[in-house]
Amino acid sequence: MANGVNASPGLSFPRETFQKLTPGPFLHAHLKRPSPIRPNGRLPEQQRTPTVNAGSLTHSNGSAVVRCGDTAIVCGIRAEILLASDLPYPPSEDLDDDDLIEHLGLLVPNVELSTGCSPAHLPGNPPGTLAQSLTYRILALLHSSNIIDPSDLKITHLEAQTDEDLPDVGPRQVKKAYWTLYIDILAIALDGNAFDTAWMAVMAAFRDTILPKAYWDQDREMVLCSPRLAEAARLKLRDIPVASTFSIFSTASPLKRKDQAESWILADPDALEEENSKEALTVVLVSKHSAGGNMLRVEKSGGAVLDKVFTATCVRLAEARCRELSTMLEAV
Amino acid sequence: MQADRRRINAPAGGTAPPTFTFADHPDLLRRPTRTRKPDEHRKIFLRTGIVPSASGSAYYEVPPAKPAPSTGSLVPTSSSLKITCTVHGPRPLPRNAAFSPNLLLSTHVKFAPFATRQRRGYVRDASERDLGVHLETALRGVIIGDRWPKSGCEVVITVLEGEEDGWFGEGREKGGGWGMMSVLAECITVASAALVDAGIDCVDLVSGGTAALVKGEGGEGEAVVLDPAPAEHEVTAACVVAYLQSRDEITEMWMKGDAGDSTEGLMDQAVRAAVMSRTVLVEAVKEGLKVGGDVQPVNGAPKGGEGKGKDVDMTG
Question: Which residue windows does the record flag with biased composition (Polar residues) (chain A) (predicted)?
Answer without folding.
Answer: 46-58
